[in-house]
Design brief:
The chain has 206 residues and is of the alpha/beta class. Helix content is 50%, strand content 11%. The protein has 2 domains: 5-17 and 85-193, 3-Layer(aba) Sandwich (Rossmann fold), CATH 3.40.50.1000; 20-81, no CATH class. The protein has helices spanning 20-29, 33-41, 44-48, 54-57, 59-65, 71-81, 87-98, 111-118, 123-126, 133-136, 143-153, 167-175, 186-193; strands at 5-8, 102-107, 129-132, 160-164, 179-182. It has a 5-stranded parallel beta sheet, sandwiched between helices. Helix 1 (20-29) packs across helix 6 (71-81). The protein is globular.
């Protein structure tokens, strides 16, 4: 098996645990996931592929949810609450890069959070390539998303390994000929990746 590039999802993988902002909204402001679901299932998808701006589409929903602050307050709080990086996985990724593997972030994100991930979360320096749906014009699990990455890396399908916490996304990658695995925690990841990577990954922080 000749893996040359490894692509990691953000939320639920590198950003783990996820949904901290959702918990905060529910516990501190009484804004439940059931209330926000129509937004995330609807217009937010246009934000994810760069067709809509989050700051422009949020106001009517914030009014409906009775959010007391500004749009900027909402977005800033979101970015900060979901700033939860798994240092153990990041350590492994850096060891993989040192061993010669191309490590990429492959994530569905809108522009504000994509920018935050690049700079404030340091992903610009922690990964070789960043693939954000808002910059690509398509999102997982669309085949175009994976084909875009494949073409950008100029690699054969069988040389790419993909990790995501969504079974739908993993299945989509497998159907296109990629290697792909469900990410359901660091310990499981450590065991699974050994069948793809024979080189020593080195120590990681506890």
């Amino acid at each position: 098996m000749n893996i040359k590039a490894i692509c990691f999802d953000a939320d639920g993988v590198v950003v783990y645990p996820q949904m901290q902002f959702s918990k905060y909204l529910n516990e501190e402001h009484g804004i439940s996931p059931a209330m926000t679901q129509p937004f995330f299932d609807g217009i937010f998808n246009d934000c994810l592929v760069g067709k809509a701006d989050l700051k422009a589409v949020l106001p009517p929903y914030l009014n409906k949810w009775q959010w007391k602050g500004s749009v900027e307050d909402f977005i800033d709080t979101w970015l900060q609450k979901d700033h939860v990086i798994d240092a153990r996985l990041i350590s492994v990724i850096q060891n993989l890069r040192k061993s010669g593997f191309l490590c990429c972030l492959a994530s569905n994100q809108e522009r504000n959070r994509a920018g935050y991930m690049k700079t404030s979360m340091g992903f610009h320096d922690l990964f070789d390539r960043l693939f954000f749906s808002c910059e690509m014009g398509c999102q997982k699990p669309d085949p175009e998303y994976f084909e875009f990455i494949e073409n950008s890396l100029n690699l054969k399908k069988e040389s790419i390994l993909f990790w995501d916490d969504s079974e739908t996304n993993v299945q989509a990658a497998l159907e296109l000929g990629w290697h792909a695995e469900i990410y359901n925690g660091f310990e499981s990841f450590e065991k699974k990746i050994k069948k793809y990577i024979s080189k020593e990954l080195g120590d990681h922080p506890a």
